Amino acid sequence: MVKLAIAGGTGVMGRTLVDVLTTQSTHKGIVLTRKAFKSETAIPHVLVDYNDVKALIKVLEEHEIHTIISAFGINGTSLSVSQANLIKAAEKFSVTKRFIPSSFAIKYPESGTQILPPLQSYFDSLDLLKTTSLKWAVVHNGTFLDHFFPPSLKSRYNHGTLVIDIPHVKAGIPGSGDELITLTYTLDVARFVIAALDLSKWPRELRVVGETLTFNQLITLAENATGKKFDVRYDSLETLKQSRITELPGHMNDYKKCPKEVLLTFLSIFQRWMAEGLASIPIEGSLNGKFPDIKPLTAQELMEKHWKSL
Ligand SMILES: NC(=O)c1ccc[n+]([C@@H]2O[C@H](COP(=O)([O-])OP(=O)(O)OC[C@H]3O[C@@H](n4cnc5c(N)ncnc54)[C@H](OP(=O)(O)O)[C@@H]3O)[C@@H](O)[C@H]2O)c1
């Protein structure tokens, strides 16, 4: 049995991990949170102050935490202060042996800090982990498949529009559309990561692959499922490098949460990495191979089962 602490277990990926943890009885866990939170689950929520390393150590001691999964969103001080202090506390408490820093995405290019400065705190966390005796691994799952979900399908991810706007039958594809991208359902990411608690050794990357395909293939699947011909535009790498992308009708709704200029620039960075072929996760050595009984939802199944009927 592994005693697990999910830091940021009140967020999208964190709550999905909690969802999976509650479906099994082998491992036990707590959620670390900065705010009083009415838990929907039987997993205890423990209030913490991430600025106080000594207090963090006490929490780890009290709950005999062996493994920490950080599911912080990447913002402001979440990684530079909160995650860094959690790593320091984990290193000091002898029972805590393993740490997953917030990742759950692609293998970010180190040069990415030039266009996305907050990524620096991500790489700083990895550098800090390298100085510790902790066993640690990042989770690489590509892009969340949930971006292409119909509203009827269960997901903790209240996502915006990304590349293919299925309800409006339009798409703004990064690059040629023939670059491979890995799409994985958040629930499947969590299922594989919780299963990985059973492994005696972790590779440096915990890879999880829902399905790897191209955007052109995804468009064909969407067209076949909906029976509609999509209006497809392509954004060249040069366009993406100028922080420009094809604006889709679904983006208008997303501007309510994030100003247009900020959102389109942010999306252009991720779409640039997609066009550069950086968004696919190798299946070799992945958790899929270690846990063949876990069958992740594929993009093909998503389209055939969940968009066809709408
Ligand atoms: N691959 C993809 O397509 C994709 C998409 C989205 C996100 N992601 C990645 O998934 C990971 C988790 O993201 P998410 O969207 O699940 O996160 P989120 O919901 O934005 O945040 C998770 C939790 O982090 C905690 N938090 C936020 N700021 C904090 C701070 N300064 N200090 C301490 N805790 C803080 C909050 O918990 P409390 O308030 O309870 O403390 C929050 O509920 C990130 O690494 C993100 O980049 C990947």
Automatic annotation (TrEMBL):
One Gene Ontology term of the molecular function aspect: oxidoreductase activity
Pfam family name, one: NmrA
Keywords: NADP, Oxidoreductase
InterPro entries recorded: NAD(P)-bd_dom_sf (IPR036291), NmrA-like (IPR008030), NmrA/Isoflavone_reductase-like (IPR051609)
Domain NmrA-like residue range list: 3-248
Superkingdom of this protein's organism: Eukaryota
PANTHER family assigned: NMRA-LIKE DOMAIN-CONTAINING PROTEIN (PTHR47706:SF4), NMRA-LIKE FAMILY PROTEIN (PTHR47706)
Similarity section: Belongs to the NmrA-type oxidoreductase family. Isoflavone reductase subfamily.
Protein name per UniProt: NmrA-like domain-containing protein
Organism for this UniProt entry: Clonostachys chloroleuca
